[in-house]
Design a protein that fits this description.
By secondary structure, the chain is an alpha+beta fold. Helix content is about 40%, strand content about 15%. The chain has seven helices and eight strands. Strand 2 and strand 3 form a beta hairpin. It is elongated, with a radius of gyration of 58 Å.
Length: about 280
């Protein structure tokens, strides 16, 4: 047989039995596509494509064959029945591509070498012309070398000598003024304040949680519970009346002086400041 008359023989497929009604089989089992999805996690679009034989809507063959086996097992039929129809679809889809590849290869083999010369010769001529032009074109010297030679031939400009410094006349000495002594300021001594007119200052610092009741002059009592570390500052004009619920839990300063330890822990103490 002549190579120019090559043909590809395509084997006709053996007819298959019709694909069973998968939807009817599924419904006989009392299953819905939602039930199969919940069990297999195969989405309803793929399940419907398998049931209706719409194989062109399915993903790659590796994944599709796996889905078909899981679907067939779920509805209780032999998976090979569906796989045979799907494989026939895959084979028929690939046959035209193989035929086109064989025809293209045969056409390349039949094409004589002389037909390629009309493309090769012009390309070789262009490459040769470029090489000849590059060989005969004079090369330009780098501009940096010329600039360097010109720089060397120019003599440096003379630097003028510095101008002599002009001495400024010294300022005349100012007449010295004898220091004057400021008059002493006499500060009158403050008269001692009596408890009747001066403000009385009270500072209470809690070392433990302590209940306090403080009466300032003739006002209503002020009651508070101080936490450990808290401070309380009060003022009065005449006197303080203080009730302490935990004598060992406070440190009282009156007029800037500490009263020291007031008593035992948990002891109730009654004070009047200043003492009568």
């Amino acid at each position: 047989m002549n190579e120019d008359n090559k043909t590809v023989e395509v084997v006709k497929p053996v007819p298959l039995k019709n694909l069973p009604d998968l939807k009817a089989i599924r419904e006989e089992r009392g299953l819905t596509t939602e039930d199969i999805f919940l069990k297999t996690r195969i989405n309803s679009a793929i399940l419907n494509a398998i049931e209706h034989g719409e194989f062109h809507l399915l993903p790659a063959p590796v994944s599709t064959k796996k889905f078909i086996r899981i679907y067939a097992e779920t509805i209780g039929i032999d998976a090979e029945i569906i796989l045979a129809h799907y494989q026939r679809y895959v084979d028929e889809k690939q046959v035209p591509e193989e035929i086109n590849v064989v025809k293209a290869s045969a056409a390349l083999e039949r094409k004589p070498f002389s037909s390629y010369l009309r493309y090769i010769l012009p390309a070789v001529a262009i490459i040769a012309a470029v090489c000849i032009m590059y060989a005969f074109v004079p090369k330009k010297e780098p501009q940096g070398i010329v600039q360097q030679d010109v720089t060397k031939g120019v003599a440096p400009a003379p630097v003028p000598p510095p101008a002599p410094a002009v001495k400024e006349p010294l300022p005349e000495a100012l007449p010295t003024v004898p220091p004057t002594t400021a008059p002493a300021v006499i500060v009158p001594k403050e008269a001692p304040q009596t408890p009747d007119t001066a403000h009385l200052n009270l500072l209470v610092e809690a070392t433990e949680d302590t209940w306090l009741s403080i009466t300032e002059d003739r006002k209503a009592p002020f009651q508070i519970t101080l936490k450990k570390g808290e401070k309380l500052s009060r003022t009065a004009r005449e006197f303080f009346v203080i009730d302490v619920g935990n004598a060992a839990g406070v440190n009282i300063n009156f007029l800037g002086k500490s009263l020291g330890t007031l008593g035992r822990k948990g002891q109730v103490v009654h004070l009047r400041l200043p003492q009568q």
